[in-house]
Amino acid sequence: MTTYSGTKEFEGASFIKTSFKGAIVRFSDVSGVTMRSVDVDGMDIDSHDLFFGSLFVNGVDVVPLVDAELNRQFPGRELQKAQTPEGLREAWVAVQSAWQETVAGTPPHLVEAHVDDEWSLAQTLRHLILATDAWLRGGILRIQQPFHEIGQIFTGAEEMGFDMSVFRIDPPPFEEILAVRAERQRLVTEFLATATEELLGEERENPWGGGDWHPTVGDCIRVILEEEWAHLRYIRRDLARLG
Questions:
Q1: For 56, phi and psi rounded to 5 degrees?
Q2: Per residue in 66-77, pLDDT tens?
Q3: Which of 169, 180, 188, 228 has its CA 20 to 30 A from that of 136?
């Protein structure tokens, strides 16, 4: 199968009576694409940014429908947008309970298994360690080098110029991942226990750089919650396929 990478040759193009059956599109921009009279049976779309825009199917914006269904499937997910200290504490308890269920219910032989190029459970937990480090230790607490060495950085970070020497090359044992993960969960729990509305409203810098957005402390916590729920959905999806 031909692979196209880093190309813009298809921007604005028209495809007439063309088969994309079985094609895989990853890390690509398909915003504004218009499809008419197409066969979409079995089409599988997964977009982390889905809830920041719209997706029309037969004239209906399905984003609110997807959001509501995910809230049904993942009780407590709707709390990730909470604005008060009490709401954020409740949101954190809900997502950690859901994660505890998933980790405890995963057989040992599947913790390193993955579907296609997706992350395994072990890699996913390492990424959540990194997310907590970035948004709590870096964004909120302003620690100059906030990252633990076993964190799993996002795809493309090296090409963006991120210092990869911070992270360990060899995969750590799962027991070590669980220990660091538990410690990072404790940090969030302890921070939220004393957080006030005034603190949540304080402005911070984006830990990943860029001066166009200055998140509040509350925004940083909500990003952590969003990461927790999104990656829980991903890993449950993949574990179901592996199981």
A1: -100, 130
A2: 999 999 999 999
A3: 169
